[in-house]
Amino acid sequence: MSKVNIPRIIVSGLRGGSGKTILSLSLISIFRKKGLKVTPFKKGPDYIDAGWLALAAGRECFNLDLFMMTPAQALQSFISHTADNTEIAVIEGNRGLYDGVDHEGTYSTAGLSKLIKAPAILVVDCTKVTGTVAAMVLGCRMLDPDVPIKGVVLNNIAGSRQESVIRKAIEHKCGLPVVGAFPKLKKELFPERHMGLTPFQEHLEVNEAIDAIAEIGAKYLDIDAILKVAEGADEIRTGVRGHRSGELHSKFKTSNSQHPKIGVIKDSAFQFYYPENLEELQKRGAEIVEVSALTRKKLPDIDALYIGGGFPETHAIALAENEAFKKSLLKAIKKGLPVYAECGGLMYLGKSLVLDNKTYPMVGALPLVFSLENKPQAHGYTIVEVQNNNPFFEKGASFKGHEFHYSRVLETEGDDAHMKPHFSKRGQGGFSEQIYMAFKMKRGKGIKNGLDGICYKNVLATYTHLHALGCPEWADGMIKCASEFKGKRGLPGYVNSK
Question: Contact, 3 vs 235, CB < 8 A?
Fold first, then answer.
């Protein structure tokens, strides 16, 4: 039985957009300036907020999600990523404290708070309200007394009189301390786009924004009181060990002599990667090779390629104009390079992207034309069932993920047969010349007709994002494909090693 007593705090709110990210960034920045080694976490499947938290902390931010992971996997992740070199952990919740997939708040921030025994600070948007804030806070405290709410931060305060009334109401009627009060901040500090905050990679003055939020936090937060809350977190007693002394189980691990090279397209167009996904590939023996689809002219010497999500639509001109890289990638795909792509990566592998009645040619490996809409085309958790043979997953497997995109398939090239479920035979060289759908959506929308995971040769591209801790089959499949391809390179029909 191991004991974990890392100081920690979880930031939650009454709803999305209440100020959780601003408070989390403030705390992380201030703790770091104090010389503390901060490990950030983001509850839920969010990539953008996690990127900002990582930037503020100067180290990776890890996602904890009770839908995509089991409680044991989430607890393992928290313990392993705070096992070494962490003096305090800051976890940003998502949505409201009790919001989940059903009326009982299943998979909520409250549930995560109890699982990792992290005391919660509740940030409340106080726009056009005073004493009623106390009723909302009291309701959160009474709904589940086991949730360790330990303090409140007021947000969007209009003036000292409003702050005084709300502060007194909460402290007298809820028995909780108010540990900070933010005034209304300029939106220019952290501009938003349709998926929330603009990614930090596209923020023109990112370091200045972090410095500014640290100054605001130092001025308006009671840092000593919040530190005391974090240090008062209950001890976690568990049989789970940190990753330095115990490995997560895997069905597939390369030998020391193999070490396949897995390329990852990572630039401002493709930035949505869980660090745990790359960790799991490395644990299984892979060497990660970062690639830019914006600036690179040729695909490097790799054994497989992983293209994550992002915003290809905001980089459509640059992606379309880099003809040399697109041709290099298409050539490698046709010769059997294993490629796994998610969301933005799916769009990039398509024929073209239509924006404002202009068409931007993409890689052209898949016969799909995408457009970007004004409203979300899919948003939420997914459950996927593997119904057809494919390069990466065993037929019959089922796993959980999530999807969030404004794009949709505008048209398909040729007949629509590949958009219907059918069994595909594996072709010469181990890959299929057919284009077919591998996944059936038990929950979520997918690409079209309740199907997802479009395949061609050794390519599998999907709208569903997966987390490697909740779906170890993904990392196993990547390593298997990369290792097999590495062993066959130089044979007729495959990409040469040089």
Answer: yes
Rounded distance, CA 33 to CA 54, Å? 15
Looking from the CA of 390 toward its CB, the CA atoms found within 13 Å total: 32
Contact criterion met (CB below 8 Å) for 189 and 38: no
Which among 198, 223, 238 is the end of a domain? 238
Task: State how many domains the chain has.
Answer: 2
- DSSP state letter for 187: G
Q: In angstroms, rounded to a whole number, what is the distance separating the alpha carbons of residues 100 and 103?
A: 7
Cα 305 from chain centre: 19
Would you say residue 312 lies in a domain?
yes
Note whether 121 and 10 are same-domain residues. yes
Distance CA 463, CA 478 (A): 17
The SS3 assignment for 97 reads coil
Q: Which of helix, strand or coil describes residue 318?
A: helix
- Tens digits of residue pLDDT in 262-308: 999 999 999 999 999 999 999 999 999 999 999 999 999 999 999 99
Reduced to 3 states, what is the DSSP secondary structure of residue 38? strand
**Three-class SS of residue 217?**
helix
Give DSSP secondary structure letters for 228-239: HHHHTPPPEEES
d(CA 44, CA 29): 21
Beta bridge partners of 451: 440, 448
Tell me 178's DSSP state.
Answer: E
The Cβ-side half-sphere exposure at 273, using a 13 Å CA radius, reads: 25
Q: Using an 8 Å Cβ cutoff, are 498 and 414 in contact?
A: no
For residue 343, indicate whether it is catalytic.
yes
Q: Is residue 356 part of a domain?
A: yes
For residue 3, the cross-strand partners are 237
Q: Looking at 140, 343, 471, 481, which residue is catalytic? A: 343
Q: Could you tell me how far CA 60 lies from the centroid of its own chain?
A: 12
Q: Let me know whether 85 and 131 are in one domain.
A: yes
Compute the distance between CA of residue 66 and CA of residue 21 in angstroms, rounded to an integer: 20
166 vs 194, which has greater pLDDT?
166
The Cα–Cα gap between 164 and 311 comes to 43
CB atoms within 10 A of CB 220: 18
Distance CA 153, CA 423 (A): 55
pLDDT tens, position by position, 357-412 = 999 999 999 999 999 988 888 899 999 999 999 999 999 999 999 999 989 999 88
Cα–Cα distance between 343 and 366 in angstroms, integer? 13
Q: Which domain, by its residues, includes 22?
A: 2-238
Using the structure block, give the residue that is written with the tokens 């990638």. 329
pTM of the predicted model over 0.85:
yes
Please check whether residue 224 is in contact with residue 34, taking contact to mean a CB–CB distance below 8 angstroms: no
At 180, the amino acid letter reads G
Task: Assess whether 346 and 208 both reside in one domain.
Answer: no
194 touches 406 (CB < 8 A): yes
